[in-house]
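Below is our example:

___
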Amino acid sequence: MWRKVLTAAAALAVTATIPLLPTAAQAKPASCFLPTDWNGWAPAKGGDALYLKVGLHDIYQVDLTPGSHVRKGAGDFLVTSSHGSHWICSALDLEGMAISDDIGMKRPLIPSNLRKLSPEEVAAIPRKDLP
């Protein structure tokens, strides 16, 4: 009897520690995306926001704390760390965002808002400023 209880408890402990990965069968939360769907980025005019290209056609705007003045250099790339959910749905999911260069120097960024732009808003952005 005790062997069955211990085996069941061990199995429960192991399954509780396995991270839940998103699958195609799970419903996509509204206006959310996976980090693997993120294809590029560009700073918005003034540098206090970023545009993220997600998938083939979607553009998200990440508002940053005022005074960020982000610019994109040739060796710069955007990094972020994931905490908790695998979906990016709000600025909180981009905690740990930074711009890193090819020698490893990081400049932390503080996202304050994340939203998907409408097709009309994307059309109003100059093509050279899109990711």
Notes: The CA atoms of residues 29 and 89 lie 8 Å apart. The chain has one domain: 30-129. Confidence is low (pLDDT under 50) at residues 2-25.
